[in-house]
DNA sequence: GCCAACGTTGGC
DNA sequence: GCCAACGTTGGC
C-alpha cells in the first residue's frame, strides 16, 4: 500500500462513451474540410471560451461528435466525427502569428486546449435548425436553447440517437 | 447588415 | 465585487 495506485475517475466514464456537438462556420472549416484533411483528422483549435474549453477537457477518444455548421445556409448539423485524442495544450494560443494568439497564455499555463477530431460522416443533407426544432426528443438540447452561444457542448445519448436517426432518414 | 444575447474587461 | 462598456456570436 504505497498510496500511488492510480484512481480511476469512476467506472461510468470507462463504460459509457459520451457525445458532444461542436460548431464551426463552414467558410472557416467545414465537415468537407475535415473529410479531406490528412487522415480525416484535425486538431480543434481556437476555442476561447472557458465553458467550451472545459467540455473539450472532458472528451475522451472514441466519444462521438456532431459537427454543426453555423452562419451557413442552411445552418445545422452537417456530419459526425469522433474524438481521436484527448485534450492537450492549444499551440495556437502561443503563436503570435495565429489569429487565435492569446497574450496571456504561457508555456507553463497555456490556458487553452484542443482535441483531435476524426471525420466519421458527412450527411447527405444538412439537418437544419428548423428540422431539429421539430423533433420532440431534441426539445431540451443545449444547442436549441435561446441565446446559446457555446461552441462546444454535451449531447445526451437520446439526442445523439435522434440526430443520427434524422441523418439516416429522408427529411 | 441588423440586432439580441452573451462573455469579458476594466474603472471604481 | 459591482456593473457599464465593449466585443463577439450567430440567426435571420
Give a quick summary of the entry:
It is built from five helices and six strands. It is α+β, with helices and mostly antiparallel strands and 171 residues long.
Helix-strand blueprint:
Layout: H1 11-15, E1 19-24, H2 31-36, E2 41-43, H3 50-58, E3 64-69, E4 76-89, E5 113-128, H4 129-133, E6 152-155, H5 157-168
Parallel strand pairs: 1-3
Antiparallel strand pairs: 1-6, 2-5, 3-4, 4-5
The protein binds a DNA duplex (12 and 12 nucleotides) through loops.
Please tell me about this protein's structure.
The protein is of the alpha+beta class. It has helices spanning 11-15, 31-36, 50-58, 129-133, 157-168, and strands at residues 19-24, 41-43, 64-69, 76-89, 113-128, 152-155. A hairpin with a 6-residue loop joins strand 3 and strand 4 (76-89). It is globular. The termini are far apart. The structure holds a DNA duplex (12 and 12 nucleotides).
CATH topology descriptor: ph1033 like fold
Give the overall silhouette. globular
Q: What is the element string, with H for helices and E for strands?
A: HEHEHEEEHEH
Q: Estimate the strand proportion.
A: 25-35%
CATH architecture: Roll
Uncertain segments = 1-10
In total, the number of strands is 6
Number of domains: 1
How are the strands of the biggest sheet laid out side by side? 2-5-4-3-1-6
- The CA-CA distance between the termini, in Å, is 59 Å
Structure classification:
alpha+beta
CATH uppermost class: Alpha Beta
> Gyration radius, to the nearest Å?
17 Å
By DSSP (H or I, 4+ residues per run), the number of helices equals: 5
Give the helix proportion (percent range).
10-25%
CATH superfamily: ph1033 like domains
- Major sheet characteristics: 6 strands, mixed
Amino acid at each position: 500500500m504505497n498510496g500511488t495506485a492510480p484512481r480511476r475517475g469512476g467506472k461510468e466514464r470507462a463504460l459509457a462513451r459520451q457525445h458532444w456537438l461542436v460548431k464551426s462556420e463552414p467558410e472557416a472549416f467545414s465537415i468537407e474540410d475535415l473529410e479531406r484533411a490528412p487522415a480525416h483528422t484535425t486538431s480543434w483549435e481556437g476555442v476561447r471560451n472557458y465553458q467550451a474549453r472545459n467540455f473539450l477537457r472532458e472528451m475522451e477518444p472514441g466519444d462521438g461528435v456532431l459537427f454543426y455548421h453555423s452562419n451557413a445556409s442552411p445552418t445545422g448539423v452537417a456530419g459526425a466525427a469522433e474524438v481521436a485524442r484527448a485534450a492537450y495544450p492549444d499551440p495556437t494560443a502561443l503563436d503570435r502569428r495565429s489569429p487565435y494568439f492569446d497574450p496571456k497564455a504561457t508555456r507553463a499555463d497555456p490556458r487553452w486546449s484542443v482535441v483531435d477530431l476524426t471525420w466519421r460522416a458527412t450527411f447527405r443533407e444538412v439537418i437544419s435548425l428548423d428540422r431539429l426544432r421539430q423533433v420532440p426528443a431534441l426539445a431540451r438540447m443545449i444547442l436549441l436553447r435561446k441565446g446559446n452561444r457555446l461552441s462546444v457542448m454535451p449531447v445526451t445519448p437520446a439526442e445523439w440517437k435522434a440526430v443520427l436517426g434524422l441523418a439516416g432518414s429522408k427529411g
